[in-house]
Structures are given as C-alpha cells and as structure tokens.
Amino acid sequence: MELEELSVAEKAAMLSGGSEWDSRGNERAGIPSFVMSDGPHGVRRQLGEGDHLGLGASKPATCFPTAGTVANSWDPALAEEMGEALGKEAHDLDVNVLLGPGLNIKRNPLCGRNFEYYSEDPIVAGRMAAGLIRGIQSNGVSACPKHFAVNSQELRRQASNSVIDERTMREIYLTGFEIAVREAAPLTIMTSYNEVNGVYAHENKHLLQDILRDEWGFDGMVVSDWGGSNSAVAAVKAGGSLEMPSPGYTSVRELEGAVKAGTLSEADLSARAAEVAKIARLTRTEGVGRNDLLKDDIAAAHHAVARKVAEGSIVLLKNDAVAPAAGTAADTAAANSTAPVLPLKPGTRVAVVGDMAKTPRFQGSGSSKVNATREENILNELQRAATATETGITVTGYAQGYDRQGAANQSLIDEAVALAAAQETDAVIAVIGLDERSESEGLDRSTMAIPQAQNDLVDALTATGKPVIVVLVAGSPVELPWFESVAAMLYVGLSGQAGASATVRALTGQVNPSGHLAETWPLTYADCPSSGWYPAIGRDAIYREGPFVGYRYYETAGVPVRFPFGYGLSYSTFTYTGLTADETGVQFTVTNDSDVSGATVAQLYVAGPSRTELGTGETAGVLRPTRELKGFVKVELDAHESKTVRIDFDRYTFRHFDTETNRWAIESGVWTLAVGADAEHLPLTTPFAVAGDVDAAPADPALGHYLDGDVKHVTDAEMAVLFGREVIAPGKPTVFGVNDPISSWVDSRGFAARTVARTLTSREAKTRQKTGSPDLNTLFILNMPPRAMSKMTQGMVDSAMVDAIVKIANGHTFRGLGGLIAGFFRNQSANKRTAKELNHD
C-alpha cells in the first residue's frame, strides 16, 4: 500500500512519537518506526523507555569532546572523522537519527548549554557542523542539527520569545544552519523550544518554509525538541514534520479534526507524513544492539579517535619563558638560559594539584551526557608518562587542592602549597575549572568566575615562586584574575573520555597544541555586550545588541579582552607574508620559523565599505562590525617549512541581508581584506574593490550608538530603528496561560499552584547543593509550560486537561480539579476510540 492510500488518521498518527525515542510507523504502508537518540558528542542509547534528560541508564558509548571544544580545532575534517565514528556507533546501537550537532550561536558566555555549541561565529559553527554531519550520515544514519533557531538561554527555555531584527537573525543566527544544510544536506533538523518574534519555532512558517525549505532547499524531516511542539495543526501548516516525544492520540484527533473542518489541507498532512516516511526508509539500521562496546575492538579504535580530536582542540593560552630549575637536565645543558615552560623538559619534577586531575570532568550535564566506555585522569596519565623514556618527567606527588563544590578549605590549600614548595618540585600542574553544577542543560551559569576556592589555590601556588602550569577544564570562558602570575596555561575544554591522555601528550611535547579559541574571552563578565539584559527573566528575550555578538562587538567598540576570537599559541612560531587577492579569493604564505613541526589557523576577515575610509574622511555602507570572519584553514607545517595558502570567496563573503528588499545583497565599493591568526592580530591587509549589486550608501544616523558598536548605551529609539518597529517587553502576567512556565506560578494567587512552584524550586536547589549536580528533571518541569504536558505524557493529558490545570494556576483550584478529573475520563474514552480507528477494528 502507498502512503497516499492511508487514511487521514493514519497519516496524522505518523506525525507524533510512539514513545520517548521512537516514531510511529505504519505496517500497512510498509513504513517502519525509527529510533532517535542524543547526542552530539556520543550516542546516548537509553535502556528501556528511559527519560529525555539522560538520568536513566544508557548503553556504553564513546564520549568525544563536546562541540565547544571541537570547535577550537578549527578543523572540519577532524569533525568529520569524529562524525564517522559517532555514526558508526549509532548504527551499531540501532539508532536511526542522532540528535546533533548543536550549532546555536554563543550569544553570551553564561548560557548553560554553550559547551554543546560551536562558536559565537556562524562561519565556524556552520563549517564544523557540516563536517560532523557528513561523517555521521556516511553510516546511513541521519544527523539532526539543532536547535533551529535563535536559542540562546536555558532560563524559561520552553516559554521564551526571542525578539530579534531580521538582518541580525539572518546574518548571525541562521547562517551557521544555512552552511550546514547547503554543504552537508542533513536529513533531519530539530526546532528550538522558544518562540521567534512571537511564533513558536516548530510552527514558524517564515523559518521552516520560507527560509529552510524554499531558500535553502531542505527537503528532510523537521522534528520538534522534546516537548517543544505547541499546536500540531499550526506545525503541519508551517512545515513541522514530527512532534516528540509522545502526545499519544491527542494530536491525531486535532489533525484529523482540522482536515475535516477544512482548516488544514490534506496535502500538507500528506507532505509531512512523506517526510517522516522518508527518514524511516533511508535510515534502516542492522545493528546488534549490544550493551557493552568494551567487548568490541571498535571501543579502542574510537577511544583513539576521541584522543585525536582532543589533541587537535587543545588551546595553549600562555607559555612564559622561565629559567630551568637547578639540578635538572635542562639546567645542566644551559645554566643561564630561559625557555618556555612548556613542553615540560626531560628531568622536570612536577607536582600535580587539583581534584579534577584525579576525578575527571570531561563532559557537561543534561541530555548529551554519555555513559563513556572508558575514563582517564590526568594524574594517572602523568604518572604513566613519567615511566616513559621519551618524557623523562617525574611526578613528585598529588594534592587535592580544593573542595570540588567550592567550599573554603584552607587545609587543602596548605597541603598543595607544601607539595609545590618542596625542594624536589620544579613546577606545578594545577588542574582547575568549572564543576558539574556550572554547565548544564536547563540552567544558565550565574557567574563567569570559577569557584573562589580555586582562585585562592592558584594565588597560593604562585606565591611559592615555582612555575605554575594551569590546565583549565571548562566548556565556556571564565574570568582569570591570576592569569598574569601563572607561567603557562592549557585550555582543554570538556575534552571527552580520552582528554586526559591528550592533555598529558600536549604537556610533554608529544603533541604540539594547535587549537584556537572559537569564542572571545572577555576580561570580566561586565564587558559582555549582552551582560545587562541576559538572561531575560520574562517572556521576551530581546536581542538588543543586534549583530554585535562576540568579537563583532569587542573589535568594533574597542573593548579590551583577555583573549581575542581565534587566539591560540603553539610550541612553533609562524609568520604570514605575501597577501594577494583576485576575483575568487586570497592567497598568502605561512612559514614555520621554528625548529618544531606545528599547525596554525589562518583566518580571513573582511571589512565592508562602511568601515573603509573614503577620501572625504566619511564612511559609507550599511551598518557593520569592524571586521567579520569569512574563511579559515588549518595549516600544518614542518620545522622551517613554508606553504602557500588559499582561501576562496563564497556566497557568504561579501553579502548582507537587505531588509527593505527582503534579499541578500552585495555592496559595491572598496573593502578591506585581512589575514592573520586571530581577530586582533592581522598582519596582512589589502584593499579590494567589489562590484556588487547595490551601491554603498551612508548608514542611517538614527542608529546612533549602533554605528560604533556601543550597544550598552543604545536607546529604545535607536533599537526601534534597527528592528524596524518599537520593541517593548511586557510586564509580569496577571493571568497565567498555557505557555507560561510553571516556575512563574510562584506569583500565583492560588495556594496549590504557588506551593507546587516553590516546592520544586526548593527541591532543585537542595539537590544541587547536596549532590553537586543539577536536578535536571525538576529544572525541566520548572521551565516547562503546561501545554507541554499534553506533548509528553503519551496521551494521558490532552489540551482540555491543560486548560483545567491552568485554572488551578490562576487560583481556581476546585474548578480546575473538577475539570481535570472530568477531562481525564473523557480523554481516556477518546483515546480508545482513536486506537480502534487506527487498528481498523
């Protein structure tokens, strides 16, 4: 039987999940169900029905570095190799659709889920995601880039409205997805929880039809985030294919009723069903569904891949020259010389300090958390390296150094200082960073600082006079008040299950660090462009800063930073020479001036006519940042080798989105092209005449502070010019609706609802304090609007019951309870009738 021959109800049934992770198939049409599974850096194949946040048991799988770490490699080919391994494991674990990668823009460093996202820049995010997608799908498994779109905070994530101007949305927040779709052709894409300019992403026709399908040519399946569907009918009209996890038969009845009433065309219903059927037929897996990858050689091979990815993603942030310690081999060779402290010289005696050196943290919390096949720790790997003749180092001891949960403990510091100050210690390796509570789905960070107990430890260690080498474990930027005092610093991010051995190989020189930061590190959180309005605590998250995100802000507004976008050191040194440009791209030479083989990331930035001085001293052209990344390439060079490097122009190089004509345009005029190793250090520049399709014209002076990137002082009137409309954030609701989060019930007039919200809030805080990890399920409930209950209960709750629950939230407790009880029995009867209809009884 063909799909077209199915009944309306049967086609409608295919558009929602049959369980937490499975689609609904149709035996009559020969359409099998398929399995979806997290995640972006490791397969989280849950045992049984499980839960959607990863708290239940899952099958062992390789935990690769997270996206925020992999992005620091600036190496799409490396991401593709990782994707091939991910896709292989997904296939062998009977997973048809792997839910990743995440490529939302890092708008603010406090977003709790930033470790799952690549970059603040859409070119880096898009190219890295495209590599991973190609690798995953080479196994016959669908990748599923997410969360589409404009998703930047975890607070109220299911009940937030991202308010953004069209040009910023297109150029910054959608371009990464566009690159991934055009270059890697993902079979599936996942929508975000939030509304975009007042319309839920999963039912946003502008996003799903106008842009994703019509403009980019996407022809795959659009799946909602789990519980992220609002109206099944509106979603089908707009281009949303599948709502997950499991609304039972509620959505089936809603869709069937809409077709009968003439408010939904059967053609739209059939189109969506065909998209779901396509995934079912294209992603057949024949895996063994094994419970333990450790028994298979693939586990060892993929552990090696995870190590390779971690090695390519480590960023050397500092490496001062210090005199060798007396009595070491290095001292004997050159008594009065100084040399960078890293790599560790043969004979160096190191003390290892830090709880994370012994108890590793290599991934974030939430739905992406993987049951790793193996675990390593830096202490053991250093001790193992100490026995290897090629390193010649000695580990003099270990001290915990700090309480992992941040409690002050002077005795731990004293123990670490005694070890560091001991005569037999030449240098200290301090492993510090963010704990498990700090970076999690469902919870934004409250500060950019690391725990004060760790800052106190580093200060005490540097006071000993011994060189301190910091190994930083974190998925996002942190403030570094002691940075000037330490001798060296390696940023390893959240480096996956093989991150410890990769780190030690970098410390000892077996690997030359080649990572570059894929996001700017500000000096303090107050310097961030959106620090004054992030996260939005109300319904509307207003993207007041416009296009000035990350380096686009810091470079334009002239704000000093700790590390610029694209920054990364090496044990090698490189020079750039000979920049030329032609109609199709730029060419230049990179030379390794050192005696050590290494790699660097060559980056191309452009500045449009509005940032190019004219003869009159005036500027022309649309509003732009000072410079924008438009291409990059990782260049590997032997000692003293030179290579000619070329970066081609593409559709993204010179374009901007013209909101007046609703199209992409290119300004004619003199542009500036610049090449270098990060956004601040660009030794090569050249003017370049661009023959575009619009003439450069002066930017609207009414944009005011936006013209200089001074977004912290933008007025409401200036924002209205950028947005093309007045933007006013609403106040607190006086009456709760189906889309207000349960956390907002703390202000309810009803005792029952108020008690529920306050109890859940208190429980989550106590659990986090007691266990050191966030209570993800409670956080999910607090962020959840009542309407999600009808999408996640396998049909036990329908929309009428949700309305009754909202009555309780508005203080009408008994009326709401009565409606809830009556609705329960009515819904059960309706489910039985629908099941009978679908089973053709």
Automatic annotation (TrEMBL):
Signal peptide: none
Gene3D superfamilies documented for this protein: Glycoside hydrolase family 3 C-terminal domain, Glycoside hydrolase, family 3, N-terminal domain, Immunoglobulins
Keyword Hydrolase: yes
Keyword set, alphabetical order: Carbohydrate metabolism, Glycosidase, Hydrolase
Record keyword Hydrolase present: yes
Domain of life of the source: Bacteria
GO biological process: carbohydrate metabolic process
Domain Fibronectin type III-like as annotated: residue spans: 600-679
GO MF: hydrolase activity, hydrolyzing O-glycosyl compounds
Assigned protein family: Belongs to the glycosyl hydrolase 3 family.
Annotated protein name in UniProt: Glycosyl hydrolase
